[in-house]
């Protein structure tokens, strides 16, 4: 039984509108989309949330997540709660099970022996909001981030927060840049994984890579089939979403972007019997 589903992230088609994203994703054969939050506001202003739900249904698309949002754990952290509340309302109406969030980092004065305890308490406050809408919050470790660069630190935050609405995601680019080990990945309980971002990278020093260096799956050096095979082995069920930011890709017609992204992700899924 296939449990992983191909998905495309709105960053992959960043110059295009959400209307164009949905039409092209459906045409390419994607069953799922990740809605880019920056495109969501203009769409809703014109069509409303009910219009988005209707458009998704008409095109046979599900929503894997809405992203990215910020989870503020330090400084004026309470100011981040209201945007998550509003995003949760929208996500619940359009059938998205996840909000994907990027963490901040403590300043030098905020760091200390209790930093994880404080971060966990605040992450729990965010989790309570999304839980009220039947959603989960997916924490995204970022390449060489000062606080949560990988799975080890993401797990530490989730353990400190101790809330079932919080989960962790993997982005193959960010984990590669941060040098995340398989030992760290395997330490994360299977139930905590929420969504996978799949992308490839060229040869070179991982630490020197930046978002515009990303490639479509299968066009670089990452062992993507091995990665997905591991998640298959632990029973992961969810979206495998193509997220690339390469500037020359953005110059392509949106149907060509979707075609290449779909070919890339389904090629990896096919290699492990999931497509």
Number of helices: 10
What is the H/E string? Answer: EHEHEHEHEHEHHEHEHH
Mean pLDDT: 97
Strands of the widest sheet, in order across it, are 1-2-3-4-5-6-7-8
* Helix percentage range: 40-55%
Kindly identify the CATH topology of the domain at 49-106 and 117-239. TIM Barrel
CATH class of the domain at 49-106 and 117-239: Alpha Beta
What's the end-to-end separation, in Å?
Answer: 10 Å
CATH superfamily of the domain at 49-106 and 117-239: Divalent-metal-dependent TIM barrel enzymes
As a whole number of angstroms, the C-alpha radius of gyration is: 18 Å
CATH architecture of the domain at 49-106 and 117-239: Alpha-Beta Barrel
Number of strands: 8
What is the quaternary state of this protein? single chain
Beta percentage is 15-25%
Give a summary of the structure in a few sentences.
It contains ten helices and eight strands.
Describe this structure as you would to a colleague.
The protein is an alpha/beta fold. It has a domain at 49-106 and 117-239: Alpha-Beta Barrel (TIM Barrel), CATH 3.20.20. The chain has ten helices and eight strands. It has helices spanning 18-28, 37-59, 81-94, 115-131, 151-161, 172-178, 182-186, 224-233, 247-250, 254-271, and strands spanning 4-9, 32-36, 62-71, 98-103, 136-139, 166-171, 193-198, 238-242. The protein has an eight-stranded parallel beta barrel, surrounded by seven helices. Helix 4 crosses helix 5.
């Amino acid at each position: 039984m296939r449990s992983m589903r191909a998905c495309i992230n709105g960053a992959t088609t960043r110059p295009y509108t959400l209307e164009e994203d949905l039409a092209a994703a459906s045409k390419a054969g994607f069953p799922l989309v990740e809605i880019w939050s920056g495109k969501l506001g203009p769409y809703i202003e014109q069509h409303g949330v009910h219009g988005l739900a209707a458009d998704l249904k008409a095109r046979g698309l599900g929503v894997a997540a809405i992203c990215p949002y910020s989870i503020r754990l330090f400084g004026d952290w309470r100011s981040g709660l209201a945007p998550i509340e509003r995003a949760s309302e929208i996500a619940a109406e359009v059938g998205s099970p996840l909000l994907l969030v990027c963490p901040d980092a403590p300043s030098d004065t905020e760091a200390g022996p209790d930093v994880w305890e404080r971060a966990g308490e605040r992450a729990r406050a965010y989790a309570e909001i999304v839980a009220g809408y039947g959603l989960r919050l997916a924490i995204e470790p970022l390449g060489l981030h000062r606080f949560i660069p990988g799975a080890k630190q993401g797990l530490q935050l989730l353990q400190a927060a101790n809330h079932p609405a919080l989960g962790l995601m993997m982005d193959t680019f960010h984990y590669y840049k941060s040098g995340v080990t398989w030992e760290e990945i395997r330490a994360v309980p299977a139930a905590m994984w929420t969504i996978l971002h799949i992308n490839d990278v060229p040869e070179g020093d991982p630490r020197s890579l930046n978002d515009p260096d990303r490639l479509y799956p299968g066009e670089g050096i990452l062992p993507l089939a091995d990665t997905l095979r591991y998640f298959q082995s632990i029973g992961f069920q969810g979206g495998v979403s193509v997220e690339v930011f390469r500037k020359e890709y953005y110059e392509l017609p949106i149907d060509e972007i979707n075609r290449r992204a779909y070919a890339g992700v389904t090629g990896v899924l096919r290699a492990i019997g999931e497509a």
